[in-house]
Amino acid sequence: MSNASREESAPAGRGGRRVANTAQNRAFGARTDEGKTVNQTVHRQLLERREEIAQICARLGVRRLELFGSATTGSGQPGDLDFLVDLGDLPPREYADAYFRLLEALTDLFKLPVDLLTQANLGNPYFRERVEQQKTLLYAA
Questions:
Q1: Residues 6 or more apart from 136 whose CB is under 8 A from it?
Q2: Distance CA 45, CA 109 (A)
């Protein structure tokens, strides 16, 4: 069964945006559909801040926000958080504004350095494969 067919949505929040869920609570669960374990420290922080994440994403027009890297694979507090974001087809000026506002908001929210990547940053096929294996959905519009 594909991930797309397993996805469900939580009730819409403000602005009609939805926080993504799956049958196994992939968005904020400790274990993803693929059986990958999410760092328990980060898991707690995501659960505590999921509404704030959804509000930030909705306000900035984020289509998808996913977590990857050491926060999804390691244990303990990671040194930084790696996010993959889809901001859609915004005009360049609006895209840049949303990107940097999201970067600042996530850094402020988690009090950690944030690496914010887009699909355009995934040019290296080996890096792209690693991100695809590790990513955990946090928000989908």
A1: 26, 27, 32, 36, 38, 66, 67, 68, 72
A2: 10
Helices then strands, each counted (H, E), the chain:
5, 6
39: buried, middle or exposed (CB in 10 Å: 19+, 13-18, 0-12)?
Answer: buried
In the chain, domain spans = 3-140
Fold of 3-140: Beta Polymerase; domain 2 (3.30.460)
Token pair of 85 as six digits: 């974001």
Q: What amino acid is encoded at 37 in this protein? A: T
Q: pTM for the full model? A: 0.73
pLDDT band at 9 (very low <50, low <70, confident <90, very high): very low
Residue 128 Cα distances to 4, 36, 139, angstroms: 19, 17, 20
Q: What is the mean pLDDT of residues 30-41?
A: 56
